[in-house]
Amino acid sequence: MKISKLTRLGSVAAIAGGLLATTALVAQTVPDDATPAANLDLPDNLQVFGKTDPNVRKPTAIVNNAVITGTDVDRRLAMVAALNNITVTSEEQRQQLRLQILRSLIDETLEIQAAKAHDITVSKGEIDQAYARLAKRFNKTPDELTDFLQKSGSSVASLRRQIEGELAWGRLLRQQVEPFVNVGDEEVQAILKRMEASKGTEEYHLKEIYLSANPSNEQQVYAEGQKMIQQMKQGAPFEYFARTYSEATTRAKNGDLGWVRPAMLPQQLAEAAGSMQIGQVAGPIQIPGGFSILYLVDSRQVLTADPRDARLSLRQLTINFPKGTTEAQAQAKAAEFGKVTQSMQGCGDVSNAAAKLNAEVVDNDQIRIRDLPPQLQEIMLKLKVGQATPPFGSPDQGVRVLVMCGRDDPKSASLPSADQIQSNLEQQRVNLRADRMLRDLRRDAIIEYR
Q1: Residue 251: which of 31, 91, 32, 425 has the closest Cα?
Q2: What local confidence, expressed as pLDDT, does residue 394 receive?
Q3: Spatial CA neighbour of 210 closest among 299, 289, 321, 297
Q4: What are the C-alpha distances in Å from 156 to residues 17, 71, 127, 149, 297?
Q5: pTM above the 0.70 mark?
Q6: Which CATH class is domain 307-408?
Q7: Average pLDDT, rounded, for the chain
């Protein structure tokens, strides 16, 4: 087993679904509605009549008369690679990605068609708003995101189509599925009792990529898993690989297992989770039936006060670099920035330092330590009031320093409310029914590959 540190600049938010640790399932187990191959009444010594060539790949399709062209596939592939910082290293990998993208486009087309069949459409204004929000996530204006997509070999139309599919499908689920999902009070109370009984038990918030394997291809699958981890270390997000390659039922949720206790995991995964640090990825880990790659989002003890839940009062100083700043120039300016900020005498001296450095100051009084990036969490746990972090950032996004002005430590941990548990149970069941609905759409669709 290999454990590698991932560099992540975005904050890791707590997942509401983690409140249901006592009901979580391990992703690579057989889903409840799976049909064993034995039920198909397959012959023991079957003979294939006719010829098939596994090397023939058909990159385009017609889905219920809706055409998906090779250009659609290539533009979506370029968009996914650019937005997720993915480097396609070989023609074989490119072809594999094209097939994955094609399957995704087929599902997207089926979802939009199903929504329209129920008179659900997404307006241009709604897509515009979602596009602007997405641009903001990438620290860009909508025009800058448009320019970025075009330079990457993609197009605005491809991203807007994906946005339309996600909005239409979500609206269809709210109309056709959510009203018919019910959770009883007895179920909620049973979960609360189990959580009380588990107080103090270690649990982990994990994400997983599950890759099935057999003795004939396990070396190849293991090598593919290693390639994924290497690209993650270069900045590609774990969630992209989970959604694209994972064969677990959690792929639709970017591989998110939620909060789980060691006893709920296979021994190999429990041992790996126990040795990981927050923000690390482990794997490929061999388990019965294949390999798993784990990402540790967070850890805690059930219903026990955690220092990472401390709320901080922070002042942030930021300096930005002019365009064209080299790495060496950025390092020199960051060193000067750090020298000035480390000599500050508490938060009251921040304004003087900001004036000297021509830095921007932003205040925030409600930041939890666990909501910060993993690299900063460890620093903040050891920081005293009045002290500043070392400089952090990048040449293109500027360099920052956080100064701790106050800290309120958690006094105790409490049970989640009954409403929170009910809401999360309902969402789990909506997700299961959504998976079944999509499988039904695939089964009934007329799809012609070209």
Answers
A1: 31
A2: 79
A3: 289
A4: 33, 13, 11, 7, 32
A5: no
A6: alpha beta
A7: 83
Largest CA distance in the chain: 82
Position with higher pLDDT, 20 vs 197: 197
Nearest to 26 by CA among 262, 214, 242: 262
Domain segments of the chain: what residues?
Answer: 307-408
Examine residue 284 and say whether the peptide bond preceding it is cis (omega within 30 degrees of 0).
yes
Closest CA to 287 of 260, 248, 241: 248
Q: Which two tokens stand for residue 448?
A: 């012609």
Asked if the model's pLDDT at residue 38 lies above 80, the reply is: no
Q: Are 274 and 368 in contact (CB under 8 A)?
A: no
Per-residue pLDDT reduced to its tens digit, 177-188: 999 998 999 999
Among 253, 261, 239, 368, residue whose Cα is nearest residue 20: 261
Residue 100: per-residue pLDDT: 84
